[in-house]
Design a protein that fits this description.
It is a single chain. The protein is α+β, with helices and mostly antiparallel strands. It has four helices and nine strands. The radius of gyration is 15 Å and the shape is globular. 30% of the residues are buried.
């Protein structure tokens, strides 16, 4: 993994700040009710554009926000996710989230994005904790989070979501990539 300015390069993905011009490609899945059945689906491209704009404003303020995930082999936008303080449901601290096109599911892209985001949280931001939410029926997402070291804190009934948490990994992390 390489951190290139505000971009991160993983073996198969380029994670870069979102652009408003990404809206049509991102809306293909952020507006897909089936792909987003366990979370919020944008109703219109304008709503998706607003989500992107608000998160990018937060990137300038907080130093992090979800990235657009571009598959390196074909330069196709396949996902959106990373670290963020949710501007639409504030108060939970730094969270991690990830959303992918349905045709990109099952290839390990979410795990790759989560690993890169947590490395960034631990090494660059030095965050003490990262949280995540998962719908109880979204076993695939829960598995990704649990494999990344997240543990269930509690069920949040008003959200119908599990709250998960992961403490920062220590300074003695061995970085095999240098």
């Amino acid at each position: 993994m390489r951190n290139i300015g505000s971009q991160i390069e993983t073996p198969r993905l380029l994670l870069r700040p979102s652009r408003l011009s990404d809206t049509p490609a991102l809306f293909e899945f952020l507006g897909d009710k089936e792909a987003m059945k366990h979370t919020h689906a944008d109703v219109t491209p304008g709503e998706c554009r607003r989500r992107i704009a608000v998160h990018e404003w937060r990137r300038r303020r907080d130093g992090y926000a979800p990235w657009t995930a571009v598959r390196k082999k074909d330069a196709r936008i396949i996902g959106w996710g990373g670290l963020y303080n949710d501007p639409f449901d504030p108060g939970w601290g730094c969270e991690i989230g990830y959303f992918f096109r349905r045709d990109a599911w099952g290839y390990g892209y979410a795990s790759e994005l989560v690993a890169a985001a947590l490395h960034f949280a631990d090494r660059e931001l030095r965050l003490g904790e990262v949280r995540a939410f998962a719908h109880p029926e979204n076993t695939a997402s829960r598995k990704i989070l649990e494999m990344a070291g997240f543990g269930i804190v509690r069920f949040v009934p008003e959200m119908n979501r599990l709250l998960l948490s992961r403490a920062r990994r220590g300074d003695n992390i061995v970085d095999r990539d240098g």
